[in-house]
Write a structure and sequence with these properties.
Distance between the termini: 38 Å
Strand content: over 45%
Number of strands: 41
CATH architecture: Beta Barrel
CATH topology: Maltoporin, Chain A
């Protein structure tokens, strides 16, 4: 549990807000009492300290075990990994389950994205790591849940604007409050940027709605809806020589083919909860949505002799995805007793489905490049998952708590090939994966100030449709891929000062060990197209530390550290291009690319409710290997940031103005890496010294 999360450390320590409960283990408990590594970030923290609010990577550094990379590329989603799971992802979020207001932002195949999260209306964010995350099913190396604020009290109308380096412009407006039994939060915003790098301009528009009704029969109903539209240029990665000489440049192929991406998504959902009686509660969630993506890639075109697009099996240089998705989760909670001691049981059934039309076109017409050309791929894909689960929490003694659960996941993939032409046969097919995923843990409370716990669980991760999409040779889906399976162990300790202490402090420590078989690894990654294979065994083990304290009134000091040793235990064959495979075998013992051995974050802030505020922060990340052979790496770096602002509280108005500077020393470093990029364009540079000026105001009626 990180310094931000422990009992909601940022809000509760700094501003004495109401205690926070988390739902990461499906049982509402204060973070301090959860027998797992769980962090809670308050929404005001995510928006505070003058952050640009471009994406979540700005505010997650203090969560140990979690790495959110600064890509400076809005054409690609946030690169997010937990204890090394998801590090290989070059698009979207992989290996980490994502939820927004209880609705999955991870599709049943394990592919997730965060572009529709509306930071302006986030109430809190929870991050669960370790064995209990496997109870969320496929691809749950960790779990991130985002919850929108609940509308309460008299109406409030507010908004914020921000301007910053590289043409950053952001504006949003929000209305919240309650009208009789209904609470509401409505928000909308727009962001545009020229981008730190050439050919990296982007625009994003979005809106979010949450309506909550307190019904007469001791039940509640929540309606949730959001929409987002993204239009972004893609500067591609840079080679070592390009990165060293001109980090703000784009690869020439990006401008030659005008690489870019557009995304449009609409989603709606409902959550119904009813207290049947004093011991039983029902929860029903249903949702549905649609997402359309078009991406223009830098695949060589005629008359370039390197072009693969003349091969009748090649799917072209433009990807079009139209997806419809939906699902439900039905859950029953009962509170009873076992041997006269409290027992809580949660049982449920989750069903999720996604259908997609995947098309591919050439990215040329005659001599014109970067345009929509002839159709080269057309298939209808569908993936479904059906997961029954049950969990139990029993307290055999006031100081002891035993938690256990099991989930059975079954994921079915089906593909119907509509593009059958001479030289490109019928590539239709289907495959199913299943696994039973148990988890168990025990916690002990020696006193009110201490918690000690240990847990174990078994997880699995199927290939996503994006990972199945291409074979190393030929066309059609790569059904030869197998799911990876993992065994997870964790032990930890938590401590906090006694209630009422003048100086409040909390710290946590956790050690973990994860052994994985059939790890899914990148086989090749060229022109935005990736193929994958199964390696042998891998091992992830490490240490997570976090602390927070209030040395004096309105001061808050925070610290987090992660040690991650993530390695291949078995060697495996390398069958990609010569540039990617300097040897036929990846040796055992190499680091898993995309992971950092050490990560450190520190912050010190002065945060009174009104008046002047200020703070400083520091980040350190050790080097990150860019490929399986570990022949190159993004160097380690240290960055410094600072902010200063003033908060006015005038009658019904609350106004805040903040100035922020990041990367004060103007350090040149790679914010993220593209793992195993086949052209050697591994590096995505982070921004140099940059500033943000922001102003927010709200009026309570």
């Amino acid at each position: 549990m990180a310094c931000l999360a422990m009992a909601g450390a940022v809000p509760s320590i700094a501003q004495t807000l109401a205690p926070i409960s988390v739902t990461a283990t499906r049982t509402e408990l204060p973070p301090f009492d959860v027998p797992a590594s769980v962090d809670v970030l308050d929404g005001e923290w995510l928006r505070g300290d003058g952050r640009a609010q471009v994406n979540l990577s700005e505010s997650l550094a203090l969560v140990p075990g979690l790495l959110a990379r600064d890509r400076q590329n809005q054409a690609q989603d946030l690169q997010l990994s937990v204890r090394g799971f998801g590090a290989r992802s070059t698009f979207g979020v992989r290996g980490v389950r994502l939820y927004v207001d209880g609705i999955p932002a991870t599709m049943p195949d394990g592919q997730g994205q965060l572009s529709h999260i509306d930071l302006a209306s986030v109430g809190r964010l929870e991050v669960l790591r370790g064995p209990f995350s496997v109870l969320y099913g496929n691809s749950s190396g960790g779990v991130m849940q985002v919850f929108t604020e609940e509308g309460q009290g008299s109406p409030v109308l507010g908004g914020s604007v921000a301007v910053g380096s590289y043409g950053l412009r952001r504006a949003d407006v929000k209305a919240s409050g309650a009208a009789g039994p209904m609470g509401y939060v409505l928000s909308a915003g727009r962001l545009s940027t020229n981008g730190f790098r050439a050919h990296s301009a982007a625009e994003r528009e979005g809106a979010n709605m949450r309506l909550d009704w307190a019904l007469a029969d001791d039940s509640t109903l929540s309606l949730l809806a959001n929409t987002v539209k993204v239009d972004a240029q893609d500067p591609l990665g840079l080679s070592r020589a390009q990165f060293d000489a001109a980090p703000r440049s784009a690869d020439p192929a990006a401008t030659t083919f005008n690489t870019r991406k557009t995304v449009s998504q609409r989603q709606i959902g409902a959550v119904y909860e009813r207290k049947v009686d004093a011991s039983n509660q029902l929860r029903l969630m249903v949702y549905g949505g649609e997402r359309a993506t078009t991406q223009f890639q830098a695949i060589p075109a005629p008359p370039d002799p390197r072009t693969p697009q003349l091969n009748p099996l090649h799917p072209g240089g433009v990807i079009g995805l139209e997806r419809n998705y939906g699902g439900l989760d039905a859950r029953w909670t009962t509170r009873t007793a076992l041997a006269d001691r409290p027992l809580e049981i949660v049982g449920g059934l989750a069903y999720d489905t996604m259908s997609e039309q995947r098309r591919g076109w050439q990215n040329f017409q005659g001599t014109a490049l970067g345009v929509l050309g002839a159709l080269r791929r057309d298939e209808d894909n569908r993936v479904t998952s059906l997961d029954p689960y049950v969990q139990a929490t029993w307290k055999p003694d006031p100081r002891w708590t035993i938690n256990a659960g099991v989930r059975h996941s079954r994921v079915n993939f089906d593909s119907a090939d509509n593009y059958v032409v001479p030289g490109n046969g019928n590539d239709s097919g289907s495959v199913s994966y299943s696994a039973t995923l148990p988890a168990a843990g025990v916690s002990f409370a020696p006193s009110e100030q201490w918690r000690v716990y240990a847990a174990a669980g078994r997880g699995f991760e199927t290939p996503t449709f994006n990972e199945l999409a291409y074979r190393a040779a030929g066309s059609g889906l790569n059904f030869a891929l197998r799911p990876s399976r993992s065994n997870n162990l964790e032990a930890g300790v938590k401590w906090r000062t006694a209630a009422g202490a003048a100086t409040r402090a909390e710290w946590t420590a956790a050690v973990f060990h994860t052994a994985t078989q059939d790890e899914i690894v990148t086989q090749s990654n060229t022109g935005g197209r990736s193929t994958f294979q199964n390696a042998g065994a891998t091992r992830r083990r490490g240490l997570e530390l976090a602390a927070s304290m209030t040395p004096a009134r309105h001061w808050l000091a925070q610290f987090s550290y992660t040690l991650l040793d993530a390695r291949y235990r078995d060697g495996f064959a390398c069958v990609g291009a010569a540039a990617l495979c300097p040897a036929p075998q990846v040796p055992a013992g190499n680091r898993i690319p995309g992971t950092a051995r050490n990560a450190l974050a520190m912050e010190l802030g002065w945060r009174p409710p009104t008046g002047w505020r200020s703070g400083v922060d520091a980040r350190y990340l050790s080097k990150v290997a860019v490929n399986d052979f570990n022949t190159d790496a993004a160097a380690s770096f240290v960055t410094l940031g600072a902010h200063v602002g003033y908060v006015f509280d005038l009658a019904r108005w609350n106004i805040a103005a903040t100035a922020r500077v990041d990367n004060i020393a103007d350090r040149q470093y790679a914010g993220s890496v593209i793992v195993n990029e086949g052209n050697g364009r591994y590096f995505e540079p982070a921004a140099g010294r940059n500033y943000v000026l922001s102003l927010s105001a709200s009026y309570r009626f």
